[in-house]
């Protein structure tokens, strides 16, 4: 009978042929690490200054963000305001119409004519004014397969330029023609958010880019279509970062990098408008996107 | 220079327990810096060595003023709600909601009062439970450790399916035996010696909401009594208490409370007297709310006690539980003699 | 010495490089101290990359100061939240005024309305509108500046 606990330990019910899993019905979520007496400092929230994980964020003024909030935002809203505008529907995946029972849980079909769905572009309002989300500095060094110690140099360069510890980048595929082997460390990348991103953008626009003679501006065609702008720096250009320029003896080899600025803009042109206000020049003819407004 | 200017230093309409009693501590908390060093440090050398974080003396007065202003706004809201409560019908849903909201606002108003914060974090054992802030703080503390621990122990020791089917804990149950030399409160699931459990425990029930005219039932139940004839286990009721009036302040069930009214003891205390080689006995302490209704004509049998039936018949609501364990040790015989119980059996394995 | 390299180990060294790790293998001595400085440099770079012994000390709070910190932290968070809400409110009011102005313009002059609502995708902030600094630049205004005229091909 169910729930029968026998006193004798030799009953048949105790010798089951499979693993017995008792029904679990926790009414109260038990966080085991809080019950353990070990590591009392790690039980504290990372925002608690007594915790070893505590890291003060607001250490100085953020000029770039203040400029965006004080000056750029209201103008960006005005520039992109179109009276009576409606959302521009993007191409979406098509759902099955459940005329057949096999439609249940079947994955949605790709959009009509395209493989990849596109986002719906909402009209400009006070709620969706673009801002800077993050800046990613990425350096891929092809020679790392033959000379792995270059990885240290790349990582150090990115760390000193940005002030943030970088992550290593690994080769994802095996391509013998490019000399790529899967899993080999091939460079480094850094994701900058908040004050680090603002500081890096300031350095770029005020110190580095003005000194590069061949730099006219970021191409108006460079973008991910939906609000991300990218450009690159050559090893010669990287010299102008103050950490490298005033200490050139320590830097035997400089590495080029790709800088990607992720914004909360819905479209590339909005992102370019925002970045032009932060001192980044743009050059070349702009391409009007086809499927959106 | 003291920052005591606003609501938080006025005690005409607020309880004095919302402030710190020690003068030295008060000056430490209500001045921009620490004029006499940190009061919480005992040694004079460490007081001199200690340095406050940089810039705190400039920012703290502004922060204190800002939070006090917000508290004043909340008190204005409380006055409004009190008027609404007075005009509302007694016992109506609206009144209950308004009272709950008032409770919450009273807690919100004092949540960032530095004196209250100090007491909550560094003087937890002496908090005034009549104040909603302190009750809320105690609840948060319970939920961060003791609640999870109790539930974990109840589940792993299988007290929950074996006695009552489940528990939604609302109340913190703490038990204390007179003999415990090291710690006062028993950790749930602890194996206690028969010496310790030979006398009835003192039960402390902490309610986190305001208690008004509430009666409690306590049952100590042992589901591990061997029943050889049926090759199973039976449940024995070790102790039963009913109609015990408790409040937020007066929350301890001790011999004094039981002497007030003899009918409160449903059944006298029977100490756990486990038998040798039998499995460890679990003693589950169940606390129930009677919803203000006293129990009448209740008959309980000690042996083969059906706790689920009892709970259903008397319309009880399980609000808290605790568990401790007992195995055979050399004091069991002495305890049996003390209570006039027959000698225990000694079990051994029989090969069939 | 910058690095904590034990030169006795690295005296006779060649490194076999494979994958992600450097393996130090003893081989026949080639040149006297040929790779020393390079290896030392690498070790220094690695030590700069690591956070070992470079982390600041934990802040130590007395009970009173910890309580004060909590009050300060909460009040700062509320201050920032209120500031953001105020900014959003101002932006919303601006939006409403733009919308109202457009409504009026639509009824007044259709030509001006369509001109006002043409999309300007290539509109940019002027580069001279630099991110403000605490002090003005050494040369505050370039009086001789003429904008570049783009040659149309």
From TrEMBL, chain A:
The record's Gene Ontology cellular component field reads: mitochondrial large ribosomal subunit
Large ribosomal subunit protein uL5 C-terminal domain location is 185-282
Q: Domain of life, per the record?
A: Eukaryota
What are the protein's UniProt keywords? Answer: Ribonucleoprotein, Ribosomal protein
Q: Name one GO molecular function term.
A: structural constituent of ribosome
InterPro entries from the entry?
Ribosomal_uL5, Ribosomal_uL5_C, Ribosomal_uL5_dom_sf, Ribosomal_uL5_N
Which GO BP terms apply? translation
**Annotated Large ribosomal subunit protein uL5 N-terminal domain residues:** 128-181
The record's listing under PANTHER family reads: 60S RIBOSOMAL PROTEIN L11-RELATED (PTHR11994)
Family label? Belongs to the universal ribosomal protein uL5 family.
Q: What is the protein's name according to its record?
A: Large ribosomal subunit protein uL5m
Automatic annotation (TrEMBL), chain B:
Quote the InterPro entries the UniProt record gives.
PEBP (IPR008914), PEBP-like_sf (IPR036610), PEBP_euk (IPR035810)
Instruction: Give me the Gene Ontology terms describing cellular component.
Output: mitochondrial large ribosomal subunit
> What SUPFAM superfamilies does the database record attribute to this sequence?
PEBP-like
Q: Where in the cell is it found?
A: Mitochondrion
Q: Which UniProt keywords apply?
A: Mitochondrion
Described function: Component of the mitochondrial ribosome (mitoribosome), a dedicated translation machinery responsible for the synthesis of mitochondrial genome-encoded proteins, including at least some of the essential transmembrane subunits of the mitochondrial respiratory chain. The mitoribosomes are attached to the mitochondrial inner membrane and translation products are cotranslationally integrated into the membrane.
Q: What is this protein called?
A: Large ribosomal subunit protein mL38
* Natural source organism: Kuraishia capsulata CBS 1993
Q: What is the lineage of its organism?
A: Eukaryota, Fungi, Dikarya, Ascomycota, Saccharomycotina
Automatic annotation (TrEMBL), chain C:
Question: What processes does the entry annotate via GO biological process terms?
Answer: mitochondrial translation
Q: Which domain of life is it from?
A: Eukaryota
Q: Which InterPro entries match?
A: Ribosomal_mL40, Ribosomal_mL40_fung
Pfam families (alphabetical):
MRP-L28
Subcellular localization is given as: Mitochondrion
Under the heading Gene3D superfamilies, the entry gives: 6.10.250.3440
Keyword annotations for this protein, in alphabetical order, are: Coiled coil, Mitochondrion, Ribonucleoprotein, Ribosomal protein, Transit peptide
Question: Single GO molecular-function term?
Answer: structural constituent of ribosome
An example Gene Ontology CC term for this record? mitochondrial large ribosomal subunit
Q: Which residues form a coiled coil?
A: 81-111
Question: Member of which family?
Answer: Belongs to the mitochondrion-specific ribosomal protein mL40 family.
Q: Report the protein name in the record.
A: Large ribosomal subunit protein mL40
Phylogenetic classification of the source organism: Eukaryota, Fungi, Dikarya, Ascomycota, Saccharomycotina
